[in-house]
Give the backbone structure.
Amino acid sequence: MNLFEVYPTCSLNLERAYGSFLFDKRGNSYLDFYGGHAVLSIGHSHPFYVKALKKQLSKIGFYSNVVLITKQQELTEKLGILSGYEDYQLFLCNSGAEAIENALKIASFQTKTKKVVAFKGAFHGRTSAAVSITDNTKIITALNENHSRIFLCHGDEKSLISELKGGDVCAVITEGIQGVAGIVTPGVDFLKKLIRNCHRYKVPLIIDEIQSGYGRSGYFFSHKAADIRPDLITIAKGMGNGFPIAGVLISPLFKAFYGMLGTTFGGNYLASVAALSVLEVIKKEEIIENVGLIGSIAIEYFKKIPQVKNVSGSGLILGIHFEFPVLYLKESLLFKKNVFIGTASNPLVLRLLPPLNISKREMHLFIEKLQNALANIENDLS
Ligand SMILES: Cc1ncc(COP(=O)(O)O)c(C=O)c1O
């Protein structure tokens, strides 16, 4: 049998990872500024996390949700406190797209309508409803193209109101910070307008914090910068630091009933322990404070690099914008400077998503390697 070839992989054959570094089979080390696609919240193989998972696995690794899994309760409580959403409810599932599907269903159960207002540049996942509100026609098939949805521009309050007035909208959804689009923020003012209008027309607002959440922006949730409280918040990636777990934070206005949602694996013992230990490390090691500090140092440095046109995002979800396509720069960072970094659908943007506990020294190392790579490219071209 062969793998179904859907991923254009690079040639690295990784053997192990620790902190912010990856090591390949030949013993080369790589600085990880991609974080396995915004997943590494507490760094690779954090000893506390490894110990907690090993201990849980030796006791009981899995049972389904037909039994009471007390680790889920501990996780829910801790997440409520750390995120500032103690009065919300939590539904646990396994992946970002699944969290989106469930958030949309919860909204639709309440409103009994089906049209979703999403935004240009959005990425919400690849399952049926999630991909239908993803602004990329290349990954939408006939099976998912009939979902009722519309894409608006961030900032376009007039069109938003006209959609909400129609009475057929089940949810408005935006990423806290758009990742795939190239680190694009909806803007604090527009987020405030979104919540105000959604509440006025009684339409749930979903903020997708799958990439921008869990401390990555310098706040636990990026929407905190706008001081708003959405009705539904989706989480995944950083939640398990690589162990598959995701969830939906649900306002007290929504009432659950048995059978409304469900999943075999969601919130199992191992997943809950992984997520719990991530929260414990985030708190104990003051990781969100670290994100704010290192992020602001980095932004100042990047802005001084002559080839950099702009820096978007906040904390450690950053887009470095250039006037030229960055693919060659990305590849020379990887193959000549041993730095893993992301790109975006905007070809002019390098996407930085390092582990959230990177040190100042590691950020300086990255800046040095970036400057060297840029100088080498200029030499290559001259
Ligand atoms: C903002 C956002 N939403 C949803 C998803 C989908 O998550 P998953 O790949 O876990 O299904 C992603 C994944 O990159 C994402 O960045």
Notes: The chain has two domains: 14-42+286-381, 47-284. The longest strand covers residues 169-175. The two ends are 47 Å apart (CA to CA). The chain is about 35% helix and 15% strand.
